[in-house]
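Give me structure tokens for this 131-residue protein.
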Amino acid sequence: MGRWALTDRPAAVIDALRSVHDPCCRERGISVVDMGLVRSVSVEDREAKVELMLTSGWCPFATQVLTAVKEQAETVEGVDTASVDVTWDEAWTMDRLSASARRKLVSLPQPSQVTSRESFVSAADQGGSRS
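Here you go.
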């Protein structure tokens, strides 16, 4: 049956999601799991249900991340289909970062401190100040 017992399928899905990256963090090797975007995973009757949080409501990569999470969850043995929902009842904060992700992102400000996304991205692309 593979590495995971049927009762461990949620853990197997989470493990599989460690290979899914938010495009903003791919070059730093930070998965959606390490970003703290995966709020919950359940598996019932061979269907995985993944609940995600987004770092921001204006994330331009949300659709791409949701699709990648669904596709990766469906690769897990014992999972035939997956659904992915975004939850908005709790705000994502940097407290959700794993220790590894925190070390890799130490230079990034809290999202609330970024007054202009365009200026922040432009400065990052040019290797300059981020504000």
